[in-house]
Amino acid sequence: MLGDQHYSYWLARHILPNEHLVRTWLGRFSHIEVDDIIQEAYVIMAEAEIDNISNPTAYFYTVCRNIVLKHYKKARVVEIVALADVQNDLLPDHTPSLEAVADARAELRFLNSVIQRLPERCRNVFIDRKINGFTQRDCAKNLGISENSVEKQLARALFSISKLYAQRDKSQTIPIRGGVDNDKKSHS
Amino acid sequence: MTKKATPDQVAAEWIARLDRRKLTEDENRLLQNWIGADVRHEGAFLRCQAIWHATDRARALRSPTAVWNQRRRLPSRRMFLSTAVAASLCAFFVPAGTTEAKMRYETHRNILHTPEQWRRKLALDCHTRVEDSSCDTRVLSGRCYVSAYDGLVKTANLRFVVNGSLLVFQGQNHESGVVVNGSAHVWGRDLSDPKYLATGTRITVTSRGTLQFSHLDKDELTRLIAWTTGQVALETETISEAADIFNRYNKKQIIPSFRLGDQRLSGLFDLNRPDMFVQAAQSIAGARVKEDPLHFYLE
User: Which residue of A132, A133, B139, B166 could cross-link B170, Cys pair, CB 3.0 to 4.6 Å?
Assistant: First the structure.
């Protein structure tokens, strides 16, 4: 589904804003690389029949859990207890609160804070391209730098933003149904 | 592309390159090889692409109160071309002014469909003025149908973030917005926090400044946007009211008599064919018709 804008906008709208929650949840499992699980999940979700997915966040959790299970089953060194953790673990309550649904401005506030945290040169390029809507060539003219520099700064901005999406609201916790022990890593 | 970089870094570099220009054959092959080499590469690319699209929302941050490094520039060739395309769509289209980041549209007796720009498409009803920029669409007067993804639409008192289609009306004494497809969030006036509007929800700021919410069914929505396809669905309007509608779009005016004025005529008509409406009035309501080059007189 590479290059399919429909999927990409769906991922941008429904998955990316909740990625940090899924990352936090994945962090409780041992012997996995969270980045790897997330990346694999994007591939699977980009091949799904998205029109039939009524709760994208729940779907995201389920896809990740299945990938974790697959990794555990493949990695023979993983203790049996870790595998049982995933199989028995209860998924978080992924129903978004009314406030979360209503507050579209939260996304804008997040983006605003992300942009402010970019290095100055990077930020100027990003603002000219994504907020002021100029082409990379026009950005280069406006900022008096080469087009190659614009491209590099834009890639740098994008990479920084991708990291910030992953680390978003690290302190935010999500309620777990059933009161499962959160400190699964202590088993490893 | 960078060696020994993380998949996220490499993906960001490819996305930036793709945004700059079309890839050469060699580059395209390199990209495909990189993506195919590891499922994590493909995932990183998809995720980065999603981030690129997610950051499109940042356009909404560009408001008069936000201090971005805005500079006035001469119109670019790209903007000039898009203006030319828009102008060619309709003889009455008046590009009242253009800058790099702002377009002004004004219609008279015509309906204007703008080319897609900044991931927004607009349809302007007759006698409508709109300012469209990379960050928002301002409806200054009249009626505008906006189709957008995370598009910011403003009236005098309301701000909408639209994901779908929104019909906006800005009159002298009141204004309204109705979600025709998808959803929107609205704030402004007495709404300090954004309020979610589902399909069919209409918000109105009355002449007394109060907010009213109502819900329209699918048929009513279809009727409301019929003008975007050059049609009018008459249902409850009197012949007088229907004549007023046709007269807004056509030079040749329909003048009904008092006797006919209060009668009702329903049906779907082309807005630029007042003669068809007159024929219907003649055959159904028994109107006698006289005409000169500028008028239809219905008696």
Answer: B139
Instruction: Record the tokens describing residue A68, joined without a space.
Output: 């974790």
Write b or e for each residue in A90-129: b if 16 or more Cβ atoms lie within 10 A of its Cβ, otherwise e. ebbebeeeeeeeebbbebbebbeebbeebeeebbbbbbbb
Share of chain B above pLDDT 70, in %: 84
Residue B120 backbone phi and psi in degrees, to 5: -135, 145
3-class SS at B134?
coil
What is the interface pTM, i.e. ipTM, of the complex? 0.81
3-state secondary structure B70-116: CCCCCCCHHHHHHHHHHHHHCCCCCCCCEECCEEEEECCCCCEECCC
Give the three-class secondary structure for A171.
coil
**Three-state secondary-structure class, residue B152:** strand
Pairing of strands B120-124, B112-113: antiparallel
Residues of B with Cβ-Cβ distance to A101 under 8 angstroms: 196
Contact of B76 with chain A, judged by CB distance below 8 Å, is answered with: yes
For chain A, the structural domain boundaries read 2-88, 98-172
Q: Which helix (H) or strand (E) holds A87?
A: helix A80-88
For CA atoms B223, B226, B228, B232, the dihedral sign is: negative
Answer yes or no: are the C-beta atoms of B118 and A149 closer than 8 Å.
Answer: no
CB contact under 8 A, A102 and B196: yes
* H runs (alpha helix) in chain B: 7-20, 25-37, 39-54, 77-89, 218-224, 239-249, 258-261, 274-284
Average pLDDT of the segment spanning B127-140: 91
Instruction: Determine how β-strand B175-188 pairs with β-strand B201-205.
Output: antiparallel
Single pTM value for the model: 0.49
Helix (H, G, I), strand (E, B) or coil at B38: coil
Residue A80 confidence class, pLDDT cut points 50, 70, 90: low
- Pairing mode of beta strands B295-298, B253-256: parallel
**Rounded distance between C-alpha atoms, residue B101 and residue B13, angstroms:** 27
Query: CB-based contact (8 Å) between B196 and chain A?
Result: yes
Question: CA B56 → CA A36, A135, B61, B110, distances in Å?
Answer: 26, 14, 10, 32
Q: Does B101 touch chain A (CB under 8 A)?
A: yes
Q: What is the C-alpha to C-alpha distance for residues B90 and B107, in angstroms, rounded to an integer?
A: 9
Token code pair at residue A119: 């290095």
- The CA–CA distances, whole Å, from B164 to B113, B140, B152, B197, B277 equal 16, 21, 12, 11, 33
CATH of domain A98-172: 1.10.10.10
